[in-house]
Amino acid sequence: MLKKGSHPLVAFKLLKQLSSPRLVHLDQIKELPRADARHDSGSRNNAARCFQGTREKTLEEIYKWIEHVDPNHPPIFWLCGLAGIGKSTIAQTVAEHEDTLHRLGASFFFSRDETDRRNSLLLFPTLAFQMALFNPEYRAHVVSALENNPDVGRSVIRQQIEQLIITPLQECGSSSNTQFIVIIIDALDECFPESGAEEILILWAAEIRKLNRQVRLLITSRPELHIRSKFQSPALRFISQSYILHDIEKSIVQADVELFLRHRLNDVAREFGLTTPWPTSYELGVLVKRADVLFIYAATVIKFVADKYWADPHRQLRVLLREKHIKNAHTHTSRYGKVDTLYLQVLQHALSEDHDDELSLQFKNVVGSIVFLQDPMTSASLESLLQLEPGTVRCCLLRLHSVLLVPDAEDNPICVFHPSFPDFLTSPQRCTSERFFVSEAQCKGTLQSSSVPLPPASATFIPLLLAVHHCHLFHGILN
After folding, report:
1. Which of 93, 125, 369, 467 has a CB 3.0–4.6 Å from the CB of 153, allowing a cystine?
2. Can you give the pTM of this predicted structure?
3. Interval 73-121: pLDDT, tens
């Protein structure tokens, strides 16, 4: 702000700065609709990176692909793996590394728990906004696209990728100062709807060929059929490099899991004043064997053992090692068998069988609602929707901090720690205890058969209605 009596030259310089192309451009690109989905965004404040010394082979393979100068080298890298194997952690590590090297143009971490972060229509405008901040020349071309079509950020995604991503990058291509740009799309399998994820892959396959190796596109996902089939199609197979995490030699992954568990458990021991090293080599070996290749098992063990509500790591570890005493633990040999047993242990430890029926129903009501909510909610909002007394939700969740993120601040939402937990709770084949199994079909069926009016053919608003009404209906279903 100019002070009274400022010199005219000072005033002129300030007005020139305020009207500079950069500031004007920033104002224009701010009009792009976008999600808070970047690797370092506030919505991902619990994002973990790879523990030092782990995943070295995988990271080396990705960095080698990024640095490759062969023009015939595939511009797309597909990192595929089972739920809980550590894909997002690897993507986070790569994003931070490339950001440090000033090569990360944009990143989008999908999440089915948040409306914006699962919306396929927000992917390309979000990537364009981030790349416009990253590269001034690119920003100028995006501004031109917005001037020609102010609504391009809200148009069909084919127009979005052509006008906001491909054409601006092509126009930057003649500049000798333009190096390659790394783009990271994590957890594409959590994109809604599934057809949106398929269209995203089809468009990248068609359009990335036009960019003359300007972009390195890293995509991570589970091996879901709708994604797997696209990467196996001729359109993508010849321009992508696939890396299947669960096919890596088991001994290499288990060595990483052991390193992670040993160091983290020793951190827990020091925090609680226990004698180190802790636990014993035998106990550590049992945990490593059960984790197999799934890092989510190891991460959940750490959160369970270090739970400050119990404040007794020895006792918590003994609970985990008593697997054979867990009631209703299944014996099937799926890749998730040990993780499922771990989740069942956590739930049974949180709600013993001597709880009365009313408390059990309340417990299942709260946890089930969190699982089915389309967007995370605060404890107060949950209590309002479920018609519970203040403080009830946090009391129900006191012993579940190893599977749910329950923030200290009451105005922050409660989130699921990992998607594999709701996957477990809603599968009768995996969650074999009636006390904890939550039927998605029953809840949705009740919603559809209720008198709640749904907007016709509006997939955008239906998830919001589900979020608002699920809690009210779920209580009735359980009773």
Report:
1. 125
2. 0.81
3. 999 999 999 999 999 999 999 999 999 999 999 999 999 989 999 999 9
Last residue of a domain, one of 321, 341, 368: 321
The structure tokens listed for 92 are 């986070």
User: Which domain does 270 fall in, by range?
Assistant: 250-321
Distance CA 31, CA 16 (A): 23
Give how many domains the chain has, as a whole number. Answer: 3
For residues 219 and 285, state if they share a domain. no
